Every structure is written in C-alpha cells, then in structure tokens.
Amino acid sequence: QVQLVESGGGLVQPGGSLRLSCAASGSIDSISAMGWYRQAPGKQRELVAAITSGGSTNYADSVKGRFTISRDNAKTMVNLQMNSLKPEDTAVYYCKLLLTSFRYYWGKGTLVTVSS
Q1: 31: nearest Cα among 4, 59, 58, 64
Q2: What is the pLDDT of residues 6-23, one digit of tens each?
Q3: In whole angstroms, what is the distance from residue 20 CA to residue 115 CA?
Q4: What are phi and psi of 89, to 5 degrees?
Q5: pLDDT at 39
Q6: pLDDT above 70 covers what percent of the chain?
Q7: How far apart are the C-alpha atoms of 3 and 106, rounded to whole Å?
Q8: Which residue from 1, 9, 41, 100 puts its CA 20 to 30 A from 77's CA?
Q9: What CA dihedral angle connects 7, 107, 30 and 48, to 10 degrees?
Q10: pLDDT (tens digit, 9 = 90+) per residue, 54-74?
Q11: pLDDT tens digits, one per residue of 33-59
Q12: How would you label 31-51 residue by residue, b for 16+ Cβ within 10 Å and e otherwise?
C-alpha cells in the first residue's frame, strides 16, 4: 500500500506565496514521476507540474514562471513552491505518484484559496 500525504495549503492573498509538500510512503518500488494536479470548482482536474525520476520537469502554461516543483534527495517527497498567486489558482491541489509499473496513486488533496 502506498500513502501520499499533502501539506501546506491554506488561504493567501493575491501576490502571495505558498509551499505545498507531498510525502510518499509504503510499498514503493520504483518511481517514474511525481506531480501536482489541481481541481477548481466546476472544472476538470488539470496538471500543474510534474517531475520525473530523472529530474525533468513539466509545467502548465498558466503557472510557468510562478511555480517551481522540486523533490528531496530520496525522491519520495515532492514540493511545489507557488509564488505570485492569483485568484484563479484557487483549487484543491492533489499529489500524484506514478510508478514504473504504471500504477499510480493520488493524495487526498489540500485546499489552496487565493483571496483578499
């Protein structure tokens, strides 16, 4: 069993910053990639940023230049530094873990609210 625990969500004013973290534990054999997705009310879940085991990153156009994804040396924790936050960044942010076996796991989500 694999567990993903997210932390760092909350309320922030426009222009502010937040840092999300996701820690993976359990029966993890080989990680292919980890990433962050988000889902705003009434919208589909979308990719925000992802990082592969090799360190390659991918960002949604809407967050490029504002968000940075990183991971720890053990590669079982992924962080998302979010700067210059906008009201449209308000969503539940989910961590996703993809294994080389193509199995994937989701965290329960953490709410980010950007509002004055």
Answers
A1: 4
A2: 999 999 999 999 999 999
A3: 17
A4: -85, -5
A5: 98
A6: 100
A7: 8
A8: 41
A9: -80
A10: 999 999 999 999 999 999 877
A11: 999 999 999 999 999 999 999 999 999
A12: bebbbbbbeeeeeeeeebbbb
Q: Which residue has the tokens 């922030």?
A: 12
pLDDT of residue 55: 92
Contact 114, 90 (CB under 8 A): yes
Which tokens go with 63? 């967050």
